[in-house]
Amino acid sequence: MSLTFIHRTAGIDQDVEIGDGTKIWRFTHISKGVVIGKDCIIGEGVFIGKDVKIGDGCKIQNGSQIFSGVTLGNFVFIGPNVTFTNILRPRANIEQKGYVETYIKDGVTIGAGAVIICGNDIGKKAFIAAGTVVTKPVYNFGVMRGNPGKIVGRITEDDLKIRYY
Amino acid sequence: MSLTFIHRTAGIDQDVEIGDGTKIWRFTHISKGVVIGKDCIIGEGVFIGKDVKIGDGCKIQNGSQIFSGVTLGNFVFIGPNVTFTNILRPRANIEQKGYVETYIKDGVTIGAGAVIICGNDIGKKAFIAAGTVVTKPVYNFGVMRGNPGKIVGRITEDDLKIRYY
Amino acid sequence: MSLTFIHRTAGIDQDVEIGDGTKIWRFTHISKGVVIGKDCIIGEGVFIGKDVKIGDGCKIQNGSQIFSGVTLGNFVFIGPNVTFTNILRPRANIEQKGYVETYIKDGVTIGAGAVIICGNDIGKKAFIAAGTVVTKPVYNFGVMRGNPGKIVGRITEDDLKIRYY
Predict the structure, then answer these.
(1) Among B65, B75, B83, B108, fewest CB within 10 Å belongs to which?
(2) Which CATH superfamily is domain B1-165 in?
(3) Which chain C residue lies closest to B49 (C-alpha atoms)?
(4) Which of C8, C64, C83, C135 to mutate to test the interface with A (most CBs of A within 10 A)?
């Protein structure tokens, strides 16, 4: 069993479950009801909203914002300064009930600075390039880039190379 | 009268005015001379620069950067990781006097991860989609998206739906 | 000799060198082996990865993420919420050795919210507009904007104006 580490400046709310070997770094806030699997790395200045579920072996880089309604599978990579959303038409003066849910499947990579509009699930091992604005769902192994994001290729069998269309 | 809340890790500089019922969350810094209205929510890791004025009922999400020269009206929604600027041609070796001002009117929504180039005012109830880079002013009720941002529609009467052009 | 300032909430790891007159602000983390020159300003909530080298007179704004493998020359301006990367195909389940290096030459400006894909060097005094996603190298004095970033002009002799192509 590997040890869990939580930096002294991190804020961990009540009723949070954190798996063995997971590390949580400075100035990060894990909200009530969050469940995080084993052997994850949660970087610095990250926010994880209420009741978010995160699988095993995920890596979430500094400055990323993961709000209620988002679910991450196993071995998901979230780059730095990635931003999720959970309301389609936010307005400061209109109270909106519930969240639009977003599922990020096993093995997905979301590159640095990407923005994920809620309700757009991202399929198994898909690769979202840095700076992409995801406005549509992404199928398994799909490669998306641009603003708005467009599918430009497919991840090959070794999980690392891209075959462009 | 509702209570004002300031998280113990937030930094509030001198000569700041904060209205009743406003909440300021962790690791946020409010600079000298800032005026914030009533019933606002300022999220985590937010920076508000010197002398910024913020109206009533605004919601500013985590990680957003609002620099001197920006003014927010009432009921403005600023999504997470939104970035303002206040100099058009920043250079590390050239000292530039003064800021280019930017006015965000009542009821505006600025989506997650958007970047607002200074000097581009955003009109009443306009809706800036997540990930937009705003390089031109936006008129009242306008809907902008993309990089560079383009006007693609108009907000309808209920403030929530978009009529696309 | 001007004084060095380090905010009490900043975290400075071992074996860091910080030049005279450099200021480091709140919630910023400087990792082991980093070398920072004279008269720099490192803003709030910034992360500087292991062994990064930063020249003299640089300004790094709030929320920017500068990872191992990045080198900044002298008088480099990094806007707020700028994100660098250091692996081309990150995957949570695949351990990747070494980093792809990125050199940012003297006098470069990188605008707010830009994302720099690793391995794309940026030439002397080049200007990267706010919100740009840099996917190709940029030559000296080049002006890039968009997603993906395209060269649209050239910086003129005074370092501040742009001649568009």
Answers:
(1) B75
(2) Hexapeptide repeat proteins (2.160.10.10)
(3) C62
(4) C83
